[in-house]
Structure to design on (260 residues):
């Protein structure tokens, strides 16, 4: 993706001692970066604040990472915001998150336009509270024509539910006679996922040190490089992102083959 070199340099000025823009190869950036934004609750608790304060701080981090990825010219940024399992949280926390999703999105829509960001959702957004769903649909409609970075927000997302849904979609198509059983191959499955048309993540970042996937993009992460940092999501910033990209660029990716 095209990037504005001047804006990029400005955005990554004032580097800390251990990392700077010159530490990453701008010609070998991951085309799709995905983040599991974890640790908002712990961040808040450590500061003696309510968990909700952690989510509010987490929004600022997401905003910074969206801007950083646009500046770098990343094609796709995806972020795990709410899982199908997160409904089990206390009702007031679920309500707050749904409220934050709606208000944040409305507030950020002008930024998305300014930065030419196209919004898509991964997950079942039909099942969200009405207000949140309406704002999401507005966001989809208003950014549909944007041609820059794709921001894929996983909300009410679970990878197993996504795979079961894809199986149903394909079964219906076979039953209708639209396709044959032999047509169900990897491409057909991939095209039936929420991520249809997007490249698989090349780099998965998880914050707060947890070493698990938590039902996230099980199919799409098959060959992704993982970068796990102990930093809690509200403390994750553009420099942490660069550290993740640098780690990615230091990996040898073989995709099951041998080194060329
Ligand atoms: C994980 O931390 C974070 C979440 C479940 C919510 C993430 C949502 C945001 C950062 C807001 C995003 C905003 C938009 C508009 C998509 P946790 O609560 O699991 O933290 P813990 O593991 O420390 O309890």
């Amino acid at each position: 993706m095209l990037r504005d070199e001047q804006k990029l340099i400005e955005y990554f000025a004032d580097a800390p001692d251990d990392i700077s823009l010159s530490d990453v190869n701008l010609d070998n950036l991951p085309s799709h970066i995905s983040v599991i934004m974890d640790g908002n609750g712990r961040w808040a608790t450590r500061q003696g604040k309510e968990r909700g304060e952690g989510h509010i701080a987490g929004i600022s981090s997401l905003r910074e990472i969206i801007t950083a990825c646009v500046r770098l010219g990343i094609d796709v940024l995806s972020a795990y915001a709410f899982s199908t399992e997160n409904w089990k949280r206390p009702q007031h926390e679920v309500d707050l998150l749904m409220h934050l999703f709606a208000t944040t999105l409305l507030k950020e829509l002008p930024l998305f336009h300014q930065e030419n960001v196209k919004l898509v959702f991964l997950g079942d957004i039909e099942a969200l509270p009405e207000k949140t769903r309406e704002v999401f649909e507005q966001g989809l409609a208003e950014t549909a024509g944007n041609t820059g970075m794709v921001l894929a927000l996983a909300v009410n997302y679970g990878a197993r539910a996504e795979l079961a849904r894809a199986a149903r979609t394909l079964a219906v198509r076979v039953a209708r006679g639209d396709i044959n059983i032999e047509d169900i191959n990897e491409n057909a499955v991939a095209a039936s996922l929420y991520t249809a048309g997007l490249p698989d993540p090349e780099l998965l970042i998880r914050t707060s040190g947890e070493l698990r996937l938590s039902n996230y993009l099980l199919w799409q992460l098959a060959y992704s490089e993982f970068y796990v940092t102990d930093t809690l999501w509200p403390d994750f910033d553009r420099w942490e992102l660069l550290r993740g990209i640098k780690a990615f660029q230091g990996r040898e990716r073989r995709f099951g083959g041998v080194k060329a």
Q: What stands out?
A: The chain has a mean pLDDT of 97. Residues 37-42, 55, 58-59, 62, 81, 86, 97, 100-101, 104-105, 153 surround farnesyl diphosphate (CB under 6 Å).
